[in-house]
Protein backbone atom coordinates (compact mmCIF):
# COMPACT_ATOMS: atom_id res chain seq x y z
CA UNK A 1 0.00 0.00 0.00
CA UNK A 2 1.90 3.02 -1.20
CA UNK A 3 -1.15 5.15 -0.45
CA UNK A 4 -0.79 4.68 3.29
CA UNK A 5 2.16 7.07 3.78
CA UNK A 6 0.39 9.77 1.76
CA UNK A 7 -2.78 9.57 3.81
CA UNK A 8 -0.70 9.30 6.97
CA UNK A 9 1.09 12.53 6.02
CA UNK A 10 -2.30 14.19 5.51
CA UNK A 11 -3.34 13.09 8.98
CA UNK A 12 -0.13 14.44 10.48
CA UNK A 13 -0.59 17.76 8.69
CA UNK A 14 -4.12 18.10 10.06
CA UNK A 15 -3.08 17.08 13.57
CA UNK A 16 -0.09 19.40 13.80
CA UNK A 17 -1.43 22.38 11.81
CA UNK A 18 -2.83 24.27 14.81
CA UNK A 19 0.40 23.89 16.79
CA UNK A 20 2.55 25.04 13.88
CA UNK A 21 0.30 28.04 13.30
CA UNK A 22 0.36 29.02 16.98
CA UNK A 23 4.15 29.04 16.95
CA UNK A 24 4.21 31.08 13.72
CA UNK A 25 1.63 33.59 14.92
CA UNK A 26 3.38 34.21 18.22
CA UNK A 27 6.10 36.01 16.25
CA UNK A 28 3.57 38.19 14.42
CA UNK A 29 4.05 41.95 14.35
CA UNK A 30 0.33 42.68 13.82
CA UNK A 31 -2.13 43.92 16.43
CA UNK A 32 -4.59 41.18 15.41
CA UNK A 33 -4.47 37.49 14.73
CA UNK A 34 -4.66 37.62 10.97
CA UNK A 35 -2.97 35.50 8.39
CA UNK A 36 -0.47 35.93 6.88
CA UNK A 37 1.17 38.29 9.39
CA UNK A 38 2.55 41.46 7.87
CA UNK A 39 5.80 41.20 9.73
CA UNK A 40 7.58 39.29 12.41
CA UNK A 41 8.78 40.47 15.76
CA UNK A 42 9.10 39.52 19.38
CA UNK A 43 6.76 42.29 20.52
CA UNK A 44 4.11 39.91 21.85
CA UNK A 45 6.65 38.05 23.94
CA UNK A 46 7.76 41.43 25.32
CA UNK A 47 4.12 42.32 25.98
CA UNK A 48 3.66 39.00 27.74
CA UNK A 49 6.70 39.59 29.95
CA UNK A 50 5.31 42.90 31.27
CA UNK A 51 1.70 41.73 31.57
CA UNK A 52 1.13 41.74 35.34
CA UNK A 53 -1.97 39.53 35.40
CA UNK A 54 -0.25 36.91 33.23
CA UNK A 55 2.82 36.98 35.47
CA UNK A 56 0.67 36.54 38.56
CA UNK A 57 -1.15 33.66 36.90
CA UNK A 58 2.17 32.07 35.92
CA UNK A 59 3.51 32.19 39.46
CA UNK A 60 0.21 30.82 40.78
CA UNK A 61 0.43 27.94 38.31
CA UNK A 62 4.03 27.10 39.15
CA UNK A 63 3.47 27.18 42.92
CA UNK A 64 0.24 25.22 42.60
CA UNK A 65 1.75 22.58 40.31
CA UNK A 66 4.76 22.18 42.62
CA UNK A 67 2.57 21.79 45.73
CA UNK A 68 0.22 19.40 43.96
CA UNK A 69 3.23 17.35 42.81
CA UNK A 70 4.55 17.12 46.37
CA UNK A 71 1.16 16.25 47.84
CA UNK A 72 0.36 13.69 45.17
CA UNK A 73 3.66 11.87 45.80
CA UNK A 74 3.08 12.02 49.55
CA UNK A 75 -0.35 10.42 49.16
CA UNK A 76 0.10 8.46 45.95
CA UNK A 77 3.34 6.60 46.68
CA UNK A 78 2.11 4.92 49.91
CA UNK A 79 -1.22 4.20 48.19
CA UNK A 80 0.52 2.56 45.23
CA UNK A 81 2.80 0.59 47.58
CA UNK A 82 -0.16 -0.66 49.61
CA UNK A 83 -2.05 -1.61 46.44
CA UNK A 84 0.93 -3.40 44.90
CA UNK A 85 1.42 -5.46 48.09
CA UNK A 86 -2.27 -6.32 48.20
CA UNK A 87 -2.66 -4.49 51.50
CA UNK A 88 -5.58 -2.40 50.28
CA UNK A 89 -8.93 -3.62 48.96
CA UNK A 90 -9.48 -3.31 45.19
CA UNK A 91 -12.20 -0.75 45.91
CA UNK A 92 -9.45 1.74 46.73
CA UNK A 93 -7.83 1.16 43.35
CA UNK A 94 -11.18 1.71 41.66
CA UNK A 95 -11.86 4.90 43.59
CA UNK A 96 -8.41 6.20 42.77
CA UNK A 97 -8.75 5.61 39.04
CA UNK A 98 -12.36 6.81 38.73
CA UNK A 99 -11.46 10.47 38.05
CA UNK A 100 -9.60 9.27 34.93
CA UNK A 101 -12.78 7.83 33.45
CA UNK A 102 -15.16 10.63 34.37
CA UNK A 103 -15.39 13.73 32.19
CA UNK A 104 -13.35 16.48 33.85
CA UNK A 105 -16.29 18.86 33.45
CA UNK A 106 -18.41 16.66 35.71
CA UNK A 107 -15.55 16.13 38.18
CA UNK A 108 -15.14 19.91 38.27
CA UNK A 109 -18.83 20.47 38.96
CA UNK A 110 -18.81 17.81 41.68
CA UNK A 111 -15.80 19.47 43.30
CA UNK A 112 -17.53 22.85 43.13
CA UNK A 113 -20.60 21.45 44.87
CA UNK A 114 -18.48 19.78 47.56
CA UNK A 115 -16.07 22.65 48.18
CA UNK A 116 -18.57 25.52 48.04
CA UNK A 117 -20.28 24.75 51.39
CA UNK A 118 -16.82 24.36 52.93
CA UNK A 119 -15.84 27.80 51.72
CA UNK A 120 -12.91 26.38 49.79
CA UNK A 121 -13.79 27.63 46.31
CA UNK A 122 -11.32 30.24 45.03
CA UNK A 123 -8.79 29.35 47.71
CA UNK A 124 -5.39 27.69 47.45
CA UNK A 125 -6.38 24.55 49.41
CA UNK A 126 -9.51 24.09 47.29
CA UNK A 127 -7.64 24.46 44.03
CA UNK A 128 -4.85 22.13 45.20
CA UNK A 129 -7.42 19.55 46.33
CA UNK A 130 -9.19 19.72 42.97
CA UNK A 131 -5.93 19.21 41.09
CA UNK A 132 -4.97 16.40 43.45
CA UNK A 133 -8.09 14.50 42.43
CA UNK A 134 -7.04 14.43 38.77
CA UNK A 135 -3.30 14.04 39.38
CA UNK A 136 -3.44 11.17 41.90
CA UNK A 137 -4.64 8.49 39.45
CA UNK A 138 -1.60 9.10 37.25
CA UNK A 139 0.82 8.90 40.20
CA UNK A 140 -0.77 5.78 41.67
CA UNK A 141 -0.78 4.08 38.31
CA UNK A 142 2.84 4.91 37.42
CA UNK A 143 4.14 4.06 40.89
CA UNK A 144 2.05 0.87 40.94
CA UNK A 145 3.86 -0.27 37.80
CA UNK A 146 7.20 0.69 39.30
CA UNK A 147 6.56 -1.23 42.54
CA UNK A 148 5.18 -4.23 40.69
CA UNK A 149 8.39 -4.48 38.66
CA UNK A 150 10.48 -4.87 41.83
CA UNK A 151 11.44 -8.42 42.77
CA UNK A 152 10.14 -9.08 46.33
CA UNK A 153 13.49 -10.73 47.16
CA UNK A 154 15.17 -7.32 47.47
CA UNK A 155 12.92 -6.40 50.39
CA UNK A 156 13.39 -9.83 51.95
CA UNK A 157 17.15 -9.55 51.55
CA UNK A 158 17.14 -6.18 53.31
CA UNK A 159 15.07 -7.66 56.13
CA UNK A 160 17.32 -10.70 56.42
CA UNK A 161 20.32 -8.42 56.72
CA UNK A 162 18.67 -6.81 59.72
CA UNK A 163 17.21 -3.62 58.25
CA UNK A 164 13.94 -2.51 59.82
CA UNK A 165 11.13 -2.10 57.25
CA UNK A 166 11.38 1.70 57.04
CA UNK A 167 15.13 1.44 56.49
CA UNK A 168 14.67 -1.22 53.84
CA UNK A 169 12.10 1.00 52.13
CA UNK A 170 14.27 4.12 52.22
CA UNK A 171 17.57 2.51 51.25
CA UNK A 172 16.48 -0.33 48.96
CA UNK A 173 12.96 0.09 47.54
CA UNK A 174 12.96 3.84 47.02
CA UNK A 175 16.24 4.09 45.07
CA UNK A 176 15.08 1.25 42.83
CA UNK A 177 11.85 3.00 41.89
CA UNK A 178 13.56 6.36 41.43
CA UNK A 179 12.89 6.53 37.64
CA UNK A 180 9.21 5.88 38.29
CA UNK A 181 9.23 8.50 41.03
CA UNK A 182 10.76 11.13 38.75
CA UNK A 183 8.35 10.27 35.94
CA UNK A 184 5.40 10.50 38.35
CA UNK A 185 6.54 13.86 39.64
CA UNK A 186 6.95 15.19 36.09
CA UNK A 187 3.58 13.93 34.96
CA UNK A 188 1.91 15.29 38.11
CA UNK A 189 3.48 18.70 37.52
CA UNK A 190 2.47 18.73 33.83
CA UNK A 191 -1.10 17.61 34.43
CA UNK A 192 -1.59 20.22 37.16
CA UNK A 193 0.17 22.93 35.16
CA UNK A 194 -2.04 22.33 32.08
CA UNK A 195 -5.30 21.58 33.91
CA UNK A 196 -8.04 23.87 32.61
CA UNK A 197 -11.54 22.51 33.05
CA UNK A 198 -11.46 21.68 36.76
CA UNK A 199 -9.70 24.96 37.52
CA UNK A 200 -12.49 26.82 35.71
CA UNK A 201 -14.87 25.84 38.48
CA UNK A 202 -12.48 26.50 41.34
CA UNK A 203 -10.62 29.71 40.51
CA UNK A 204 -11.68 33.11 41.79
CA UNK A 205 -11.08 36.70 40.76
CA UNK A 206 -7.83 36.88 42.69
CA UNK A 207 -6.64 33.33 42.17
CA UNK A 208 -6.15 32.50 38.51
CA UNK A 209 -3.91 29.88 36.92
CA UNK A 210 -2.11 30.35 33.61
CA UNK A 211 -4.36 28.04 31.53
CA UNK A 212 -7.40 29.89 32.90
CA UNK A 213 -5.86 33.25 32.02
CA UNK A 214 -5.26 31.90 28.52
CA UNK A 215 -8.81 30.53 28.30
CA UNK A 216 -10.42 33.78 29.47
CA UNK A 217 -8.23 35.88 27.20
CA UNK A 218 -9.21 33.70 24.22
CA UNK A 219 -12.88 34.10 25.10
CA UNK A 220 -12.75 37.87 24.94
CA UNK A 221 -9.99 38.90 22.55
CA UNK A 222 -7.86 37.50 19.80
CA UNK A 223 -4.42 39.00 19.44
CA UNK A 224 -1.04 37.30 19.11
CA UNK A 225 -0.51 37.60 22.89
CA UNK A 226 -2.48 34.38 23.36
CA UNK A 227 -0.31 32.67 20.76
CA UNK A 228 2.85 33.79 22.56
CA UNK A 229 1.42 32.54 25.86
CA UNK A 230 0.43 29.23 24.27
CA UNK A 231 3.97 28.82 22.95
CA UNK A 232 5.38 29.48 26.42
CA UNK A 233 3.10 26.75 27.82
CA UNK A 234 4.13 24.34 25.04
CA UNK A 235 7.83 25.06 25.56
CA UNK A 236 7.58 24.53 29.33
CA UNK A 237 5.87 21.16 28.85
CA UNK A 238 8.21 20.03 26.09
CA UNK A 239 11.34 21.14 27.94
CA UNK A 240 10.26 19.34 31.09
CA UNK A 241 9.53 16.12 29.19
CA UNK A 242 12.84 16.29 27.28
CA UNK A 243 14.97 16.99 30.36
CA UNK A 244 13.33 14.27 32.41
CA UNK A 245 13.48 11.89 29.48
CA UNK A 246 17.27 12.37 29.38
CA UNK A 247 17.57 11.84 33.12
CA UNK A 248 15.11 9.06 33.75
CA UNK A 249 13.72 7.71 30.48
CA UNK A 250 10.34 9.39 30.96
CA UNK A 251 8.73 8.13 27.74
CA UNK A 252 9.84 4.57 28.42
CA UNK A 253 8.58 4.66 32.00
CA UNK A 254 5.24 6.18 31.00
CA UNK A 255 4.81 3.90 28.00
CA UNK A 256 5.31 0.81 30.17
CA UNK A 257 2.30 1.45 32.37
CA UNK B 1 -20.57 12.18 42.84
CA UNK B 2 -23.10 11.56 45.58
CA UNK B 3 -23.23 15.27 46.24
CA UNK B 4 -23.92 15.74 42.55
CA UNK B 5 -26.78 13.28 42.70
CA UNK B 6 -28.14 14.91 45.85
CA UNK B 7 -27.95 18.38 44.31
CA UNK B 8 -29.85 17.24 41.27
CA UNK B 9 -32.78 16.40 43.56
CA UNK B 10 -32.94 19.93 44.92
CA UNK B 11 -35.08 22.45 43.13
CA UNK B 12 -34.76 26.06 42.20
CA UNK B 13 -37.78 28.27 42.66
CA UNK B 14 -38.92 30.72 40.04
CA UNK B 15 -37.02 33.47 41.82
CA UNK B 16 -33.86 31.42 41.43
CA UNK B 17 -33.28 30.50 45.06
CA UNK B 18 -32.09 27.06 45.98
CA UNK B 19 -34.44 24.91 48.03
CA UNK B 20 -33.35 21.71 49.69
CA UNK B 21 -35.65 18.92 48.67
CA UNK B 22 -35.92 15.34 47.60
CA UNK B 23 -37.63 15.93 44.36
CA UNK B 24 -37.40 14.85 40.78
CA UNK B 25 -38.86 18.18 39.70
CA UNK B 26 -35.58 19.30 38.14
CA UNK B 27 -35.43 16.13 36.05
CA UNK B 28 -39.04 16.55 35.04
CA UNK B 29 -38.38 20.14 34.07
CA UNK B 30 -35.34 19.18 32.00
CA UNK B 31 -36.80 16.13 30.34
CA UNK B 32 -39.99 17.94 29.34
CA UNK B 33 -37.92 20.70 27.76
CA UNK B 34 -37.58 20.13 24.00
CA UNK B 35 -34.41 22.24 24.13
CA UNK B 36 -32.62 19.52 26.12
CA UNK B 37 -33.59 16.92 23.54
CA UNK B 38 -32.29 19.16 20.81
CA UNK B 39 -28.90 19.68 22.43
CA UNK B 40 -28.70 15.96 23.19
CA UNK B 41 -29.27 15.22 19.53
CA UNK B 42 -26.81 17.95 18.52
CA UNK B 43 -24.18 16.62 20.96
CA UNK B 44 -24.52 13.07 19.68
CA UNK B 45 -24.43 14.14 16.03
CA UNK B 46 -21.42 16.37 16.58
CA UNK B 47 -19.58 13.61 18.45
CA UNK B 48 -20.42 11.03 15.80
CA UNK B 49 -19.10 13.30 13.05
CA UNK B 50 -15.94 14.18 14.97
CA UNK B 51 -15.28 10.55 15.90
CA UNK B 52 -15.77 9.36 12.30
CA UNK B 53 -13.54 12.09 10.87
CA UNK B 54 -10.91 11.39 13.53
CA UNK B 55 -10.90 7.68 12.65
CA UNK B 56 -10.67 8.40 8.91
CA UNK B 57 -7.63 10.61 9.47
CA UNK B 58 -6.03 8.49 12.18
CA UNK B 59 -6.38 5.09 10.55
CA UNK B 60 -3.69 5.61 7.87
CA UNK B 61 -1.41 7.17 10.49
CA UNK B 62 -1.79 4.23 12.83
CA UNK B 63 -1.39 1.74 9.98
CA UNK B 64 1.74 3.55 8.83
CA UNK B 65 3.20 3.60 12.35
CA UNK B 66 2.31 -0.05 12.83
CA UNK B 67 4.01 -1.19 9.62
CA UNK B 68 6.93 1.19 9.53
CA UNK B 69 10.40 -0.25 10.02
CA UNK B 70 11.96 3.19 9.80
CA UNK B 71 14.21 4.46 12.53
CA UNK B 72 11.98 7.55 12.65
CA UNK B 73 9.07 5.40 13.76
CA UNK B 74 9.53 6.13 17.47
CA UNK B 75 9.79 9.85 16.88
CA UNK B 76 6.73 9.85 14.60
CA UNK B 77 4.74 7.94 17.20
CA UNK B 78 5.69 10.46 19.88
CA UNK B 79 4.77 13.35 17.56
CA UNK B 80 1.36 11.77 16.94
CA UNK B 81 0.46 11.86 20.62
CA UNK B 82 2.45 14.98 21.54
CA UNK B 83 -0.65 17.23 21.21
CA UNK B 84 -1.93 15.51 24.36
CA UNK B 85 0.76 17.32 26.33
CA UNK B 86 -0.31 20.68 24.95
CA UNK B 87 -3.21 22.46 26.57
CA UNK B 88 -6.44 22.25 24.59
CA UNK B 89 -6.76 26.02 24.61
CA UNK B 90 -3.47 26.44 22.74
CA UNK B 91 -4.69 24.14 19.98
CA UNK B 92 -7.99 25.97 19.75
CA UNK B 93 -6.09 29.23 19.25
CA UNK B 94 -4.26 27.58 16.34
CA UNK B 95 -7.58 26.63 14.75
CA UNK B 96 -8.94 30.12 15.30
CA UNK B 97 -6.03 31.46 13.25
CA UNK B 98 -6.45 28.85 10.53
CA UNK B 99 -10.22 29.08 10.24
CA UNK B 100 -10.90 32.67 11.33
CA UNK B 101 -12.43 35.30 9.08
CA UNK B 102 -8.94 36.64 8.33
CA UNK B 103 -7.38 33.23 8.80
CA UNK B 104 -5.28 30.95 6.67
CA UNK B 105 -8.14 29.25 4.82
CA UNK B 106 -10.13 32.40 4.12
CA UNK B 107 -7.03 34.38 3.13
CA UNK B 108 -6.28 31.60 0.65
CA UNK B 109 -9.84 31.62 -0.69
CA UNK B 110 -9.71 35.40 -1.06
CA UNK B 111 -6.41 35.25 -2.91
CA UNK B 112 -7.99 32.78 -5.33
CA UNK B 113 -10.96 35.08 -5.81
CA UNK B 114 -13.51 33.08 -3.85
CA UNK B 115 -15.85 34.44 -1.23
CA UNK B 116 -14.79 33.69 2.32
CA UNK B 117 -16.77 31.18 4.35
CA UNK B 118 -17.39 31.54 8.08
CA UNK B 119 -15.59 28.67 9.80
CA UNK B 120 -15.47 29.74 13.42
CA UNK B 121 -18.21 30.46 15.94
CA UNK B 122 -20.32 27.82 14.25
CA UNK B 123 -20.71 24.05 14.00
CA UNK B 124 -18.16 23.65 11.22
CA UNK B 125 -15.39 25.05 13.38
CA UNK B 126 -16.34 22.95 16.38
CA UNK B 127 -16.41 19.80 14.24
CA UNK B 128 -12.94 20.48 12.86
CA UNK B 129 -11.45 21.40 16.23
CA UNK B 130 -13.01 18.45 18.00
CA UNK B 131 -11.82 16.02 15.33
CA UNK B 132 -8.27 17.17 15.85
CA UNK B 133 -8.51 17.10 19.62
CA UNK B 134 -9.58 13.43 19.81
CA UNK B 135 -7.20 12.20 17.08
CA UNK B 136 -4.27 11.33 19.40
CA UNK B 137 -6.57 9.09 21.45
CA UNK B 138 -7.92 7.49 18.28
CA UNK B 139 -4.37 6.77 17.09
CA UNK B 140 -3.43 5.19 20.43
CA UNK B 141 -6.59 3.07 20.48
CA UNK B 142 -6.06 1.93 16.86
CA UNK B 143 -2.41 1.06 17.50
CA UNK B 144 -3.41 -0.95 20.57
CA UNK B 145 -5.99 -2.80 18.47
CA UNK B 146 -3.54 -3.47 15.62
CA UNK B 147 -1.39 -5.54 17.99
CA UNK B 148 -3.16 -8.68 16.86
CA UNK B 149 -2.88 -7.94 13.14
CA UNK B 150 -0.54 -10.43 11.52
CA UNK B 151 1.36 -8.80 8.61
CA UNK B 152 1.82 -12.25 7.05
CA UNK B 153 -1.89 -12.33 6.19
CA UNK B 154 -1.48 -9.28 3.95
CA UNK B 155 1.59 -10.82 2.38
CA UNK B 156 -0.38 -13.99 1.74
CA UNK B 157 -3.09 -11.96 0.02
CA UNK B 158 -0.61 -10.28 -2.31
CA UNK B 159 1.15 -13.58 -2.97
CA UNK B 160 -2.20 -14.96 -4.05
CA UNK B 161 -2.41 -12.14 -6.57
CA UNK B 162 -4.60 -9.58 -4.82
CA UNK B 163 -3.99 -5.97 -5.77
CA UNK B 164 -3.03 -3.77 -2.81
CA UNK B 165 -6.41 -2.07 -2.70
CA UNK B 166 -8.17 -5.42 -2.83
CA UNK B 167 -5.96 -6.86 -0.13
CA UNK B 168 -6.71 -3.84 2.03
CA UNK B 169 -10.48 -4.06 1.55
CA UNK B 170 -10.79 -7.81 2.02
CA UNK B 171 -8.00 -8.58 4.49
CA UNK B 172 -6.70 -5.58 6.44
CA UNK B 173 -9.99 -3.75 6.91
CA UNK B 174 -12.03 -6.72 8.21
CA UNK B 175 -9.17 -7.75 10.50
CA UNK B 176 -8.98 -4.30 12.06
CA UNK B 177 -12.75 -3.76 12.28
CA UNK B 178 -12.68 -4.43 16.03
CA UNK B 179 -9.95 -1.86 16.58
CA UNK B 180 -11.86 0.68 14.50
CA UNK B 181 -15.01 0.12 16.50
CA UNK B 182 -13.23 0.49 19.84
CA UNK B 183 -11.32 3.60 18.73
CA UNK B 184 -14.50 5.15 17.32
CA UNK B 185 -16.39 4.67 20.56
CA UNK B 186 -13.49 6.12 22.56
CA UNK B 187 -13.36 9.19 20.30
CA UNK B 188 -17.15 9.47 20.47
CA UNK B 189 -17.29 9.37 24.27
CA UNK B 190 -14.43 11.86 24.57
CA UNK B 191 -16.21 14.17 22.12
CA UNK B 192 -19.39 14.13 24.18
CA UNK B 193 -17.51 15.19 27.30
CA UNK B 194 -15.29 17.74 25.52
CA UNK B 195 -15.86 21.24 26.73
CA UNK B 196 -13.02 23.60 25.80
CA UNK B 197 -13.32 23.15 22.04
CA UNK B 198 -17.12 23.57 21.73
CA UNK B 199 -17.02 26.52 24.11
CA UNK B 200 -14.18 28.46 22.46
CA UNK B 201 -14.67 27.44 18.82
CA UNK B 202 -18.43 27.85 19.09
CA UNK B 203 -18.11 31.44 20.25
CA UNK B 204 -21.28 31.18 22.34
CA UNK B 205 -23.34 30.06 19.37
CA UNK B 206 -22.88 26.32 19.64
CA UNK B 207 -24.72 24.52 22.42
CA UNK B 208 -23.92 20.98 23.48
CA UNK B 209 -24.45 19.11 26.73
CA UNK B 210 -21.03 20.04 28.11
CA UNK B 211 -21.42 23.77 27.50
CA UNK B 212 -24.94 23.60 28.91
CA UNK B 213 -23.67 22.05 32.16
CA UNK B 214 -20.98 24.71 32.44
CA UNK B 215 -23.41 27.56 31.76
CA UNK B 216 -25.91 26.24 34.29
CA UNK B 217 -23.19 25.90 36.92
CA UNK B 218 -21.34 29.18 36.42
CA UNK B 219 -23.57 31.59 34.49
CA UNK B 220 -27.16 31.00 35.53
CA UNK B 221 -26.05 29.40 38.83
CA UNK B 222 -28.80 26.80 38.54
CA UNK B 223 -26.91 24.06 40.36
CA UNK B 224 -29.71 21.50 40.52
CA UNK B 225 -30.08 21.77 36.74
CA UNK B 226 -26.30 21.49 36.24
CA UNK B 227 -26.19 18.45 38.51
CA UNK B 228 -29.19 16.81 36.85
CA UNK B 229 -27.68 17.43 33.41
CA UNK B 230 -24.41 15.89 34.61
CA UNK B 231 -26.19 12.78 35.85
CA UNK B 232 -28.01 12.59 32.53
CA UNK B 233 -24.73 12.97 30.60
CA UNK B 234 -23.07 10.35 32.79
CA UNK B 235 -25.87 7.88 32.09
CA UNK B 236 -25.46 8.50 28.36
CA UNK B 237 -21.70 7.96 28.64
CA UNK B 238 -22.23 4.87 30.77
CA UNK B 239 -24.43 3.37 28.06
CA UNK B 240 -21.71 3.90 25.47
CA UNK B 241 -19.06 2.69 27.94
CA UNK B 242 -20.93 -0.60 28.32
CA UNK B 243 -21.13 -0.87 24.53
CA UNK B 244 -17.35 -0.31 24.35
CA UNK B 245 -16.68 -3.01 26.96
CA UNK B 246 -18.84 -5.46 25.02
CA UNK B 247 -16.97 -4.61 21.84
CA UNK B 248 -13.57 -4.95 23.55
CA UNK B 249 -14.52 -8.34 24.89
CA UNK B 250 -15.69 -9.52 21.49
CA UNK B 251 -12.58 -8.36 19.68
CA UNK B 252 -10.38 -9.88 22.41
CA UNK B 253 -12.07 -13.25 22.04
CATH homology superfamily name of chain A? MetI-like
Number of structural units classed as domains of chain B? 1
Terminal Cα separation of chain A, in Å?
A: 32 Å
Hey, roughly how much beta strand do the residues of chain B contain? under 5%
| CATH architectural type of chain B | Orthogonal Bundle
**Average pLDDT value of chain B?**
77
Record the strand order, biggest sheet of chain B.
Answer: 1-2
What is the count of structural domains of chain A?
Answer: 1
CATH topology of chain B: MetI-like fold
* Poorly predicted residue ranges of chain B: 11-17
User: N-to-C SSE series of chain B?
Assistant: HEEHHHHHHHHHHHH
How much is the radius of gyration of chain A in Å? 22 Å
Shape of chain A: globular
Structural class of chain A: mainly alpha
* Head-to-tail CA distance between termini of chain B: 34 Å
**How many β-strand runs of chain B?**
2
**Beta strands of chain A, count:** 0
CATH structural class of chain A: Mainly Alpha
CATH architecture of chain A: Orthogonal Bundle
The whole-number mean of residue pLDDT values of chain A reads: 80
Account of the protein in words:
The complex is a heterodimer of chains A (257) and B (253). By secondary structure, chain A is mainly alpha-helical. Chain A has 13 helices and no strands. Chain A has a single domain (60-256), classed as MetI-like fold (Orthogonal Bundle), CATH 1.10.3720. In chain A, helix 3 (52-84) crosses helix 6 (124-148) and helix 9 (178-194) runs antiparallel to helix 12 (224-248). The longest helix of chain A has 33 residues, at 52-84. Chain A is globular and about 75 Å long. Chain B has 253 residues and is mainly alpha-helical. In chain B, strands 1-2 form a two-stranded antiparallel ribbon. In chain B, helix 3 crosses helix 7 (123-146) and helix 5 (88-99) runs parallel beside helix 11 (196-202). Mean pLDDT of chain B is 77; it is low at 11-17. The chains are: A mainly alpha (257), B mainly alpha (253).
Amino acid sequence: MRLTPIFAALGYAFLLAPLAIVVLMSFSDDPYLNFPPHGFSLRWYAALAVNVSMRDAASTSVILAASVTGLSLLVGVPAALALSRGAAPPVVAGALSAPLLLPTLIVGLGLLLVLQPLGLVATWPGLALGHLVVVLPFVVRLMGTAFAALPPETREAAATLGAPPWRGFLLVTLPMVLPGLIASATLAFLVSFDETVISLFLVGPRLVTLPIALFRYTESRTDPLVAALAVVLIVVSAALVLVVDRVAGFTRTVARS
Amino acid sequence: MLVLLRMSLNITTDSGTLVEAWSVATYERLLSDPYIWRITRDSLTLSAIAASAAILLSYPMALFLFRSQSRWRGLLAVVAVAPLLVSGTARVIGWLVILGDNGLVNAGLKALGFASIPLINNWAGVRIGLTESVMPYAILALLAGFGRLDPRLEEAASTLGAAPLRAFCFVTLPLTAGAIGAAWLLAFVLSISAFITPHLMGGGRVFVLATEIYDAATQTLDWPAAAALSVYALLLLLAFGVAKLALDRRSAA
